[in-house]
């Protein structure tokens, strides 16, 4: 067999060589797969099939994808066919494990055959990992998995069972839901797995059991059907038996795996939880924690039994706790929390079962009287809180239980260690002192719980442990009025009171709580053990006692404090102050509310001082302060404000006590009224407290401040809008917004972090102690060579911490310190107050808008008709107020206008009088101007008639000149014809020259004479034209002035109508004269146009004469020319006469211009008169306007009268409203009953909400537990593999020993071969059989050792991925193995 296996290895090594090639490997795989697939057809025996499977198993390591693609179906077929053969089944399963394994990124990178240069894109293109693809092929049909489950039977070989569990685990990790589906339909599938848990002693059986424990949580996770099947197969009993056999919570990772399987069966499965209770498995939980079972009926049979129980209880309280034990104990507590995570009958039944089996007492002893780590104690208190919720028997147990708290005692450091730490202070930190514990006298459990929450118990623990105590106390008093009243009454017990039972145990608890409430924060702020959380937690606990209970609030109001600090009971706390009130005495005791208000006021002052100091310190100033920080003072004030808000809500008598001193209201208003420098949470909570006090201040008793006095103060100091903004901003604050139902459970992380830091410090101390010599040598070297010392590099954690501190410093400098991370951390609110706030903040924010005579409840119950009437009345009031303001403005305006108009009227009257005098004085001048105007018109008419006659004469002369010109033109034509005739006779040259010379001389003379006459005529014509144009312009201007005068006279008063008519007639006559002058001017223009026509004729004559001078050559023609010149002279004379006439016309025109000037002067005087008349008209208009304004004033008076009538109507409406309000007040009794019913409904709703909260918390705890179990399972697997490695090493030693024996046997065999066959035949045969068996066993052990080594490496790699530490010894073992 060994020889055949070596041959297979040689073939595989040949294929794996670089020159082997992939094609040969694929062909080999295909060949082997065909051999397996066609084994039945070809009749291949089992040996050859096993060899083929072994060959595929070897190839699957380096050619995983190829073997899975080509040979996996054949392997599955072979598995279903050859599962009965152990060797073949084992080889098939191991090959499937290799194919279905999905490597992580780190394990793939650590593979030496992994190609480091493979790009990501290529890996992405390759698709999903081959292990997932092979798993899908394996699970495609249920047959292979159904064939795998029978291999887990106890009668199969160890390696087959172990490999089957490993393959099943791989399939579950890759495709859990499909595996679960196949297991559900498999016959006896769950039973086969559970059979692996019921194994006897022996290493192989334990290995199978441990592997089954690891497999079980994955198999049942999220599948209720499988959970039920496994539970009914007896899984609870078997898992609990494993825990008991391995040593309960001290059993290491094996117990952790078993507990995780138990938790997986119970999670989200109510049926299994009920079955767990019915199978009486709940009583097994407390013994798992080594808690001794109590006697039946709490009665011991003998003294010895009682002493034995005490001894076992003390052993339970002082037991040692390592990390694994704490982990196992937390899983036990998670299982108990799962059982009480519901809200129905099953929850109550499980609460009773846990109480009967002693689990409640176990949890309380573990949390309050043991040396367990703080994180475990905190978790125990949270589970105890779930047990207390709505369970009076469990609450009664807490009320009557006595425990012996364990306090921490630190041992002093020995002198030798102190000297050593002083010598090597630079090399190592001082050693951590050893701690010890002492047990105090028995105390009530309630007192210990309150001490733990407040922080005065001396027990080891931080904020997470205290938060768990707060949660347990809240659940204890939530619906237990007996416990509430017992604690409150125990704060100030009467002298004759005799407490028994719950009251006796609660009395000291009340004293402890009251002491923390009354303690002044400023007096203990500078002490060494100052704790700001003490005041916040005390306020929270006291608010739990008072919430939604007027009975508890009444009992608390009965507590008073004398000036000397003694506590007394105030019997007159709720009596009517009006009957007999002598509280003004300074020595009178102060009520508890007033003491809380006093502490609040002092804390407010200390907060302002702390903010100033922190801001100065952030800006670089040196400020020394031993008091609390600003964040601590803010936290203290929040506690007091929360307590007062809960106390005063729906309690008028408590509000009367709160407002009994006027300084109280001012102290609460001050932070709300400030615009900056105050934390928004303080402002919002203070505003909420004021709203609560105003809303529920309905008691008629005597108080310093009443609802009627509060209303104007709140509106003047704060305002309704600012009040709502202050309350609304609280919900946006991160410290309020981050509060969730599990806020107290989340603080367990604080304890876990502290424990981790302590463990790390311990490990570091041990490492420094182990390397003391090396540290001393290094210290000596640094001392001899100072330059060799170098500062350690800054750690990332230190850098992040420095950055956070810098950001917090910047926020504090800018006045935003409340936003810094340091101030946001920690506990600020609990979920119960957040719910209370969200339910009532909207109502309280609107309460100050309600009239003091009413209330928000009464306002909400008002019918819609009355609301509508109120809105209408408010609208009418606004309208009346607006109109009243408008009337006032109008009255002032009327007064101003009246005074102004009176002045203007007086001025206008004076101007009117002056105008009238002026008109009367200018009347004779106007008449004289009119007579002169008539004379001018007559003179102008005469001048125009003379000019017309002259113009007619000039026109006649022009006609004569035109006739003469026509005759001269005819003569010129005759001369031209004669010249042509003469030129035809060809005269001599001399004659022609003489004629030409004479013609020239005549022409010159004619030009001179004609030029002079024509130039003068042209000048005269131009001057006449300009004069006519000028006169036309003057006439147009005169016409405009006349038109203006006409327009002005048309607007005059009727008294001057007659004079104006006469003046109008004169103006019309002047206009007619003007029109006549214009017509004459037009005639003159026509005459000038005729003169210009004569000039054109003259030009033509000159041209004819020039032609005549060129052609004429005879003397006859000269004579005709001389006659023509004579005619031209006569024409010139006629022109001169015409010019004289024109000059005469101009003279007459100048005379007319003088007359026009006189007319213009008259028009100016007329215009002055018109301006005076216009002024008079303006005065009349202003008078009319004043009359109109007087009318508008009369109309305004009428409107005012109407408004007064409307006001009277509004008075009637107000009376009706008062009557309606009286009717509403009659409904007060009904509203009170309604409030009581609503309070009861709220209590029911709160209880329902608490149940929901517990369910949510349980779910979150289950999720965390699941993650923790997974990590613990991996750690357990690692430890198990370590044990297996050691066992295999021992087996390897045995193998070496057997090898030596083999060599000795071989030597004996050789020596016996020479002997006779008859003597040594039998001995030789026995030796050969022994040799074969030893070789086979060695081969199996080597294969198993190799597989376990590979698995151990993979598990270590996974642990390193998770960030867990791996011991150096194990790394060295790995190196040795390699």
Automatic annotation (TrEMBL):
Domain Uso1/p115-like vesicle tethering protein C-terminal: 1267-1378
Chief localization: Golgi
Protein name, entry field: Transporter
GO biological processes: endoplasmic reticulum to Golgi vesicle-mediated transport; Golgi vesicle docking; intracellular protein transport; vesicle fusion with Golgi apparatus
GO cellular component term, pick one: Golgi stack
UniProt subcellular location: Golgi apparatus
Pfam families (UniProt xref): Uso1_p115_C, Uso1_p115_head
Species annotation: Pseudozyma antarctica
Domain of life, per lineage: Eukaryota
InterPro entries: ARM-like (IPR011989), ARM-type_fold (IPR016024), Uso1_p115_C (IPR006955), Vesicle_P115 (IPR024095), Vesicle_Uso1_P115_head (IPR006953)
Keywords noted in UniProt: Coiled coil, Golgi apparatus
Keyword Hydrolase tagged: no
Boundaries of every Vesicle tethering protein Uso1/P115-like head domain copy: 442-740
